[in-house]
Input
Amino acid sequence: MITFHDVSKIYNHHSIALEDVSFKISPNEFVSIVGRSGAGKSTIIKLLIGEEKPTKGRIFFGQYEVNKLKNSELPALRRHIGIVFQDFRLLPNKTAYENVAFALEVAGRPSREIRDLVPQVLDMVGLADKAKNFPHELSGGEKQRVAIARAMIHRPEVIIADEPTGNLDPFHTAEIINLLLKINDLGTTVILATHDKEVINSLEKRVITLDHGRIIRDEEKGRFILV
Amino acid sequence: MLTVIWRIIYYGFKNFWRNAWPSIATVGTMVIALSVFLGLILFNVMTSKAIELIQDKIDISVYFKNTTSEDDILNIKQSLETLPEVKEVEYISKDKALEIFKENHKSDETILQAINELDTNPLVASLNIRAKEPSQYALIADYLSSQNLSKFIDSLSYSKNQIVIDRLTTIIHNVNQGGFFITLVLALVAGLVIFNTIRLAIYSDRDEIAIMRAVGASNAFVRGPYVVGGIIAGLISALISIIIALPLIYGVSPYLKVFIPNFNLFSYFISNLFQLILYQIIFGVAIGSFSSFIAVRRYLKN
Output
């Protein structure tokens, strides 16, 4: 479903973000991408959602060849993907409900469907009672759950989580990871970029390890080993 | 499609309301800029009134020889009226001239006595000619000096007043051009001030715009509410600027009468109120929506 084919991203001679990276991700997989800061995790995600263009190589997502998409074609691609960021990236002037609803509104879904679906998903992430709160009124863990609700509400084929637990304590971290596993069980591919050793070792899922822009390990039921 | 348009308008209003402070700042700046714009419109109306007044005072007179018959004079009057440059021609007969002379000197006994002692009317018949534009007097004077007319004519006031007329023509021309230039520059300044205010407000939203893009919002869906917000700000500002102008003009109007008699700025303002509101709204809405449109563009690139 997702294919990186000999992808390189080179900013200049001193700054090579990715070098000849190739991998495939099948539907309904749960893949962790690990590595030190600057190893290239975020670059892979940016390339996958078309935020940046590769210097070399091809990237496929379903029917899209991402590296060839024009700026105006990106929204359509992104509606097949749900993204969760380390810094949550909720819209500060919208309530939890509106933030989640926004992902459906941009896709032009009917209002009735939005009214039905949003409370269900908020309930699933355990925030039914916080629907009317603005992001600044929520804790970090709650914000991240709103972000996950927003990422999954339009039933994307893939959820990409970029260091989703980076700003959270261990308790909330477990909560978020369990939520991602649950979403994966429901049939959605999950790509988790993280440098959290505990998380990786407890998952026992596929792990792609990056170092200095290269894939140094790609194992089923992998563990967090950087050397 | 309809749902999308409805959502864009809905969010335009909602964002305008929720981002109260940036909205108030934008409206505040726009009110000032639109007041400048309104001031420019009124300034131009006043200068053109003043110029009209001065232009009305300029004319040239042709004095005919005593030998010229009234028929000849009326023929010349008719031929003058066919000229495209001529606005109006007034015939002043010998008797009329005497009447005017007496009226002008009614307080001066000596002159009245002197004139009454004469058996004949010493004054000559004349034509008062008004041109459409002050610059056209030279042409009219040329026409009157031509061979077949000059035999009837004793003198032309143009030759005497030429310097004054030329100078007034230049002044009027300069005031018109200068006014246009000042209007252009100040309108541009007002527009730029509004543009920058809106740009700053949107700059502070750049992270939000990036989030909307990441969630899959199309450019139109991100940009739409900002453009709607610009339109709302333009509308509100236009109305506020008119409301502020109303008492100000009422207060200033009597003082302006000193400069331009027969012109009441306040009654002009009231009788053209709807037109002025329309101008303000068009200017405000156009610059508000256009600024938003341009300002959002640079954050839609990722």
Q: What stands out?
A: Residues 191 and 287 of chain B are 7 Å apart (CA to CA).
